[in-house]
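Exercise 7b. Backbone tokens:
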């Protein structure tokens, strides 16, 4: 298979997005067909690269002996790339109905498509430097999406988002420079790249690991750096779904996994103060996000707090620094993505068709939005961790990793996972109860006009439901791929 195909899924959507700027007068139907076609072609190419089954390298620019801009298709990159590539066409389909009355669709789809290329660039980066480049590009192309509506609230959220992202990237840059000095290479290598120069400098390297972890953790919405994710809820729902389920927060978690297992090496870090402090940060974030979600009445922000909590499930599994922990981490990365995008899209349908945004506005609405709230309920059951849904499998794997670790910090984190699961049931099932069983039979304002959205929104929503069920029943191939294709 030609090696140039490695770069194709990265640059093709970026180029397609740039072309939308060159043709601002393109008709909406033509633009929709073009963008959807690009996403399908990208999916096909990514699938071909995965089916090929080989580790492939492509070096584009060599600046110095160690500083190289290059791509590689390895097991972890394939894992992340297929998740992104499968969910993107459904997100596009959903957006065509959601954005149909928007006056700035050309700008929206320009950056929406560029974001796809940036995320795949992170997935296929061969080394720390290449990943860092696309990490920064991802911040820049999602910034206009966050502030798309250009309201004062959206502009403020956009600038806060950019400040958080660039600040986190600054700490990641420090980490990259230190690895350049003390590592044998910047190329990702399972087990780590630290060389002889690291001997005698372990304390400093552990400290730099921690600040790099926190810098990359900004995108993963680790507290106290998760405020941007709540403010970004002002973005259009297709953007919010991608920020929370596919692109930015998942890119942050992915980068942390690369840092731990492919740069420093779990053996170097395990048992250090940095590991335990990272575990404590994750445990706090898990409880904070779940608790705030229970209190929040704005449905979109409620799900945003839920994302803050669940992304720290993923990071917590990674900082256990064990094969079992990484298996649980990556499993939850997938299960959360498919369930959470369904939950966001369901709430987006509620907002788009019926203009309801708060918990107290949805009395009895489930009986009129039958398809939407049935999907919300089923995706919610997966996120809670009900058996036979995908979320149960990933949470079981994380708790299994906690038991396998056997340490007190791991057990404390495991208790936080269990408490968070109970709180997840509270903040999701109270919404379901309000929609189907309103108090005293009270119905929401405008109840007679309430309706489900069209098929362009319902198909992506129910795809999430189907995937949550299928992955809950047929989870073994996913876990086998993680164990044999990545670890």
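Sequence design result:
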């Amino acid at each position: 298979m030609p090696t140039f195909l490695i770069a194709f899924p990265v640059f093709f959507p970026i180029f397609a997005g740039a072309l939308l700027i060159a043709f601002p007068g393109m008709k909406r139907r033509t633009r929709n067909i073009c963008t959807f076609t690009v996403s399908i072609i990208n999916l096909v190419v990514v699938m071909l690269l995965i089916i090929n089954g080989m580790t492939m390298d492509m070096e584009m620019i060599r600046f110095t002996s160690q500083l190289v801009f290059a791509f590689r298709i390895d097991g972890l990159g394939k894992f992340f790339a297929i998740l992104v590539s499968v969910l993107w066409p459904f997100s596009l389909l959903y957006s065509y109905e959601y954005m149909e009355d928007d006056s700035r669709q050309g700008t929206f789809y320009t950056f929406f498509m560029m974001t796809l290329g940036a995320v795949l660039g992170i997935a296929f980066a061969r080394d720390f430097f290449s990943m860092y480049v696309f990490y920064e590009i991802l911040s820049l192309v999602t910034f206009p999406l966050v502030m798309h509506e250009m309201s004062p609230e959206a502009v403020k959220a956009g600038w806060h988002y950019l400040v958080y992202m660039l600040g986190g990237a600054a700490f990641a840059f420090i980490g990259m420079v230190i690895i350049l000095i003390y590592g044998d290479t910047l190329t990702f290598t399972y087990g780590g790249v630290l060389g002889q120069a690291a001997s005698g400098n372990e304390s400093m390297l552990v400290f730099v690991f921690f600040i790099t972890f926190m810098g990359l953790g900004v995108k993963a919405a680790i507290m106290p750096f998760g405020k941007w994710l709540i403010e970004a809820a002002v973005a259009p729902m297709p953007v919010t779904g991608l920020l929370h389920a596919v692109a930015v927060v998942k890119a942050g978690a992915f980068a942390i996994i690369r840092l731990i297992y492919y740069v420093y090496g779990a053996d170097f870090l395990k048992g250090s103060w940095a590991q335990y402090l990272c575990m404590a940060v994750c445990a706090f974030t898990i409880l904070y996000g779940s608790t705030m979600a229970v209190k929040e009445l704005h449905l979109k922000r409620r799900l945003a707090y839920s994302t803050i909590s669940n992304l720290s499930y993923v990071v917590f599994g990674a900082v256990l620094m064990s094969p079992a922990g990484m298996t649980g981490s990556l499993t939850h990365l997938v299960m959360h993505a498919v369930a959470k995008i369904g939950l966001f899209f369901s709430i987006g349908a509620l907002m788009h068709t019926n203009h309801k945004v708060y918990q107290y506005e949805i009395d009895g609405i489930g009986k009129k939005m039958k398809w939407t709230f049935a999907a919300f309920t089923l995706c919610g059951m997966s996120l809670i961790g009900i058996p036979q849904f995908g979320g149960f499998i990933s949470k079981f794997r994380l708790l299994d990793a906690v038991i396998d670790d056997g340490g007190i910090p791991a057990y404390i984190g495991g208790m936080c996972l269990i408490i968070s699961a109970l709180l997840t049931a509270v903040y999701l099932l109270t919404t379901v109860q309000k929609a189907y069983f309103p108090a005293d039979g009270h119905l929401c304002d405008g109840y007679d006009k309430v309706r489900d959205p069209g098929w362009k929104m319902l198909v992506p929503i129910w795809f999430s439901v189907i995937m949550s069920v299928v992955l809950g029943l047929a989870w073994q191939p996913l876990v086998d791929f993680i164990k044999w294709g990545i670890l």
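Instructor comment: The first strand starts at residue 56 and ends at 62. The two ends are 25 Å apart (CA to CA).
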